[in-house]
Amino acid sequence: MEPNEQYPSDHSSQPSESEESVVQLSFEETRVLGSLIEKELTTPEYYPMSLNGLVNACNQKNNRLPKTNLSEDEVNRCIEELRIKRLVHRVDLVGSRVPKFQHNAEKELDLIKAERALIAELLNRGPQTTGELNNRADRMFEFDGIQDVEDTLTDMMERSPSLVGIMEARPGQKESRWFHKLAPPPKIEELQDGSSVYVPAPDQRLDQLDTVLSEFKDLKEEVEALRYQVRDLSGELREFRKQFE
Asked: The pTM is what?
């Protein structure tokens, strides 16, 4: 990921434990899924996509924020994770030497075409205003104006599980921005010049790994302590037996 070309954030409330939650993806997985949805809608003649084509789509310099430089191995790992989550399928086409891949968002997330266009923009560019989404999603779906976009987003927000949310307008900004809920809400990073950029939230799996490593360290120390106790007890038992020999 290139520095200072980063992604959006949120101060909105987290869903309650009782609220049904949508599948959670890493930032890299959101880029892969967003690229697949976008290409399905904009260039259907090149869809499903090969691994090489998907890597290029993820790393393209336009319509992406932040820009990335994902490798084939990284994209391939994302594909496998998304296949486990039933959001991507492998397709072996007759006459094709390489496997192709297609998303399953319309079924797994219950998305019609208009909704797929909006979620693709949010996945690929991060939080945006209704007006920005209206302009940018137009190449994937022809909405009946900005109110149509607003209504579609509202439907996606009010469903269960909710797929999108609204960020509070930042100081100096007039409009609030929509963000997708397929990953933890993005964060705002303040720069020294007073401006701000949006950055993806940290991968929750890293926090989980730190917790597992910490618990493993504690367990290892307990095992070491028990080994010393067993050794001492064994010595005491030998001394006790000697009294009767």
From this structure: 0.74
